[in-house]
Amino acid sequence: MSENVSDGIEITRVFDAPRALVYRAWTTPEHFAAWYGGAAEIPLDRISLDVRPGGAWSLVMLVPGHGEMPFGGVYKEVVEQERLVFTIKDASAPAGIEGDIVTVTFADHGDKTEMVFTQRGGNLTAEQYEQAKGGWAHFFDTLAGHLAER
C-alpha cells in the first residue's frame, strides 16, 4: 500500500522476515549495499553507516550509464529494531540544506515485519518525489528478494 503526498513519500510494506533481520538490512553495510540502489552496485568500501543519533551515513552507487551517485545524511533517531530517522540528500542537493527526513518504522506483523517508510521535507518537486517513490518501491522489491535469501 502506498500513498501520494505532495511534499514527500509514504510506502508501507510487509516483508516475510523477522523484524530483527529487516532492521539489520537497514543498519549493516553488507545488507544495505545488497538492496539499496536496486541493480546499481554499492561497493562495500564506498558505504559507511554510523547508526547512532548524530552519526553520519554515506554511500556511492555505481549506476551503469550514469556513473557515481553519492548519497548521505545524518541519523537523528535510532531505536533498535523499531525506528530509524535520518536525513538524506544526494550530490545534486543545494549546499546548506539538510536534506529530506526519512522515517522507517518496523513492527511485528505475525511472523512477518511491517515496515512504514516516509520521506518528507519538501526539498524535491512533485515530479522528483514521484520518481523517488518509484525508486524506493524498486529498492524495496530488491530488499524483499534479499530477505528471502536469508
From TrEMBL:
Pfam families: AHSA1 (PF08327). Residues 16-147 form the Activator of Hsp90 ATPase homologue 1/2-like C-terminal domain. It comes from the Bacteria. Signal peptide: none annotated. InterPro entries: ASHA1/2-like_C (IPR013538), START-like_dom_sf (IPR023393). Gene3D superfamilies: 3.30.530.20. Transmembrane segments: none annotated. CDD domains: SRPBCC_CalC_Aha1-like. Belongs to the AHA1 family. This is Activator of HSP90 ATPase. It comes from Streptomyces violascens.
